[in-house]
Design brief:
Blueprint: E1 2-11, E2 14-24, E3 29-33, H1 40-47, E4 55-60, E5 63-67, E6 70-71, H2 74-81, E7 84-87, H3 99-109, H4 115-129, H5 144-156, E8 162-166, H6 177-190, E9 194-199, H7 202-208, E10 211-216, E11 219-227
Parallel strand pairs: 3-9, 3-10, 7-8, 8-9
Antiparallel strand pairs: 1-2, 1-4, 4-5, 5-6, 10-11
Helix pairs in contact: 3-4, 3-5, 4-5, 6-7
Length: 228
């Protein structure tokens, strides 16, 4: 589902990614752990097309997002990025939109779905997430755990094949981490979704992952620290 080959990224004289290689199988939950500044977020941003690498290739579902450091055409990039969902660390929900509107916005604007079809899909997603009773609420009326689930729902609405999580438990009370772990495992099993997570939370990572890899100083350790 995902293949990263020889990925490098520099910010000025700071080499953040040093020849990273990574492969994810369909339906697999992979967690990358490591200290702040180790390159995890930059890797995630490159995979999502938000940061351009200097060297290396990224292949999503058999298609090159970057090849030898060169981005695909804008048309191809748009198509490839439809296969990738990203749940931001701070949720990034639209505060002026209801839960339903947050989930239907991208499918309507990007995929061109009608309001009726987008809302029907959103209702199915909210039912899956246990949030249907919150569809008319606004983000300010939700708990941290509910906002996290809405952010996941917004990513799911684009029907990605790969979903990425940036520190999914950092903004949550410790008691909610188990709930998020169970939801992510449910995505992999019931939606056959490939999941990539970066986190500092080793307990959470061990709970949710099929395998855990470590990353530090721009180098990804390809040896499994943990594997179910």
């Amino acid at each position: 589902m995902l293949k990263v080959e020889g990925l490098e990224k520099n910010f000025g004289k700071n080499k953040v990614l040093k020849g990273v290689n990574l492969q994810l199988k369909e339906g697999e939950i992979t967690v990358i752990v490591g200290p702040s500044g180790g390159g995890k977020t930059t890797l995630l941003r490159c995979i999502n097309g938000l940061t351009d690498p200097d060297k290396g290739s990224i292949i999503i579902n058999g298609k090159y997002l970057y090849k030898d450091g060169v981005a695909s055409s804008k048309k191809d990039e748009i198509e490839i990025r439809k296969d990738i969902g990203l749940v931001f660390q701070s949720f990034n929900l639209f505060p002026h939109m209801s839960v339903l509107e947050n989930i239907t916005e991208a499918p309507r604007v990007v995929l061109g779905l009608s309001k009726e079809i987008a809302e029907k899909k959103a209702v199915e997603i909210l039912s899956f997430l246990g949030l249907l009773d919150k569809k008319d609420n606004y983000p300010c009326e939700l708990s941290g755990g509910q906002k996290q689930r809405v952010a996941i729902g917004r990513a799911l609405a684009m029907e990605p094949k790969l979903i990425c999580f940036d520190e999914p438990t950092s903004a949550l009370d410790p008691g909610l981490t188990g709930e998020v772990a169970n939801l992510i495992k449910k995505l992999a099993v019931e939606k056959s979704m490939t999941v990539l997570i970066i986190t500092h939370d080793m307990t959470f990572g061990t709970n949710v992952a099929d395998r855990i890899l470590s990353m530090d100083k721009g180098i990804l350790n390809e040896e499994h620290m943990y594997m179910k």
